[in-house]
Specification:
Blueprint lengths: L1 E5 L1 E5 L7 E5 L23 H15 L6 E5 L6 E3 L9 E4 L2 E4 L5 E6 L3 E7 L4 E7 L1 H5 L2 H13 L7 E4 L9 E2 L1 H11 L6 E3 L6 E3 L1 H11 L7 E3 L24 E6 L1
Parallel strand pairs: 4-6, 4-8, 5-7, 11-15
Antiparallel strand pairs: 1-2, 2-3, 3-16, 7-10, 8-16, 9-10, 9-11, 12-14, 13-14
Length: 259
Amino acid sequence: MERIENGLIYYRFAGFDDVNHGVFTRHGGVSAAPWDSLNLGGTVGDDVQAVRRNHELIYETLGVDFERTVTVWQVHGADTVLVNRPVTGRRWIAKADAMMTDQPGLALVMRYADCTPILVYDPVKRAIGIAHAGWRGTVQGMAANLVQAMHDAYGSRPADMVAAVGPAIGPDRYQVGEEVVDAAAHYFESIDGIIRRDPHDGTAYFDLWEANTRDLIRAGVRAGRIEVAGLCTATRTDEFFSHRGENGQTGRFGAVLCL
């Protein structure tokens, strides 16, 4: 993964070299604290015009047409939406947590503040997908659902795909309750390497990076074609927004993916 400073600061994944994309940090925008400064979340209390300008800045940085950007109303589910064009009159096209397209120039945009960005690219069929996976989406198979949706829509073979697991809250910071442990055990069957117990008090910690990587592999994506950022948003609040790390008073960083 490459860190780029080009007015704004963002990250790019090696397997996506011929795809226009970026996972943006919190730096380079116009929002005031506690959303400082490149907040892309429109429902967290920030000034609407500041959020719009922040969106303009990331699209200008990538050379993306603002009018050709698409997003979803994220609901912590596992549904994927096929996108062929923007919707007239609004930017979000549906309530869902993943999008896919094979249309050049159509930019897929999602927002995060601890949940996992998942990017998928099929260089053979020339199709892309992007997802948002918190614990609920992860244990509902968000990553695998996106891979299957791209196979169904475009004939994409999972073995041809490259994938990336972006910055998210790390396994040492994501303490969860027993309902999460039970849900993970139900979906993954084995939670070895996914759930870690604190040796002193027995509390559980959920590894979203490993869980989503494992889900991509189970869906047929080859392990060697999955890049994991390994950046913890709760630890690196100097670089990213973190709902957990900043007690809910924070913004949203964004990921953009465009053929």
